[in-house]
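**Protein record**
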Amino acid sequence: MRQWVIATISLTVMPALSPALAQTTQQLLEICESEEGRLLPDRQIVSCTMDLYARPGVDGLAFIFYNRGIAYFVKANLDVAITYFTEAIRLDHKFAIAYFSRGATYVRKGDYEHSITDLSQAIGLTHQTAAFHYRGVAYLAKGDADHAIANFSEAINADPRSAEDYYNRAVAYGTQRNNRVLALLDYTQAIRLDPKNYLAFLNRGNTYGMIGDNQRAIADYSEAIRINPGYSPAYVNRGNSYRAKGECIRAIADYTEAIRLDPRSALAFSLRGGAYNVVGDTEHAIADYNTVLQLEPKNASALYDRGLAKRKNGDDMGANADITAAMKMQPDVAAVIAGC
């Protein structure tokens, strides 16, 4: 069975601002306008978000709590950061950047309901584009592709050069079978804006594979490997495409490299075992399935596939034992070996 490794969504980072750097709104605006701010790798919550301010001035004490929240976020102490952002909001109910920062922190914690509430509040106060990015991420993580697409589209409309928002919208489109062409278009635009984004190449390759264009998929996986030679999933996925084309020897080579890079990848061992099984090398297939079962003792698919390999190898008793045990573990288990 063909299994792709799918890259995750892209999330902007919080700023590394200290209280000493930002005590007044004017200082934050100066940071936003500085060349240093523009050189940061991602859009920032404070710098480069001037429109986030609902009023010309922000209560000084609220601002101090806000800065403390930022400092604790940078230290990855998210719960304390949320406490300080909450206090800033209590002191100033229209402190949009505090809603935004708390919402973004909730995204990092995986609390998507609270994040959406806060980000919506920030958007209501300022219609700030970075909040659309984070809210899109929250919706996508919740599995709500339609709302995610709408939010990433808002972010793109405001900043047509945002590679990460094209990438994220492509991920959202990719979850919808009827929108895979739109996913390809967005991945392509993300790559045009950021040619070193190996994850965009990986996911575009996955999308090509899903529509049966294995040659283009292989080209994209190869480019992902060129950019990041140590990224194991690109070898796994390229191996899948080679296998779908009937080129099992190349597939085995890619799975082997993936295993070298990630020796605990049960998926790579399982896929290589399947490829060995198809070319008739049942001894190596059984060895790979043994490794899978050492890594994942309850992997019913590997147990079932090992049974098939044992049957090919003439071990009917061992085959029956494995297949029976696999079906008890997972009644609908079935080995589907495509390609080659």
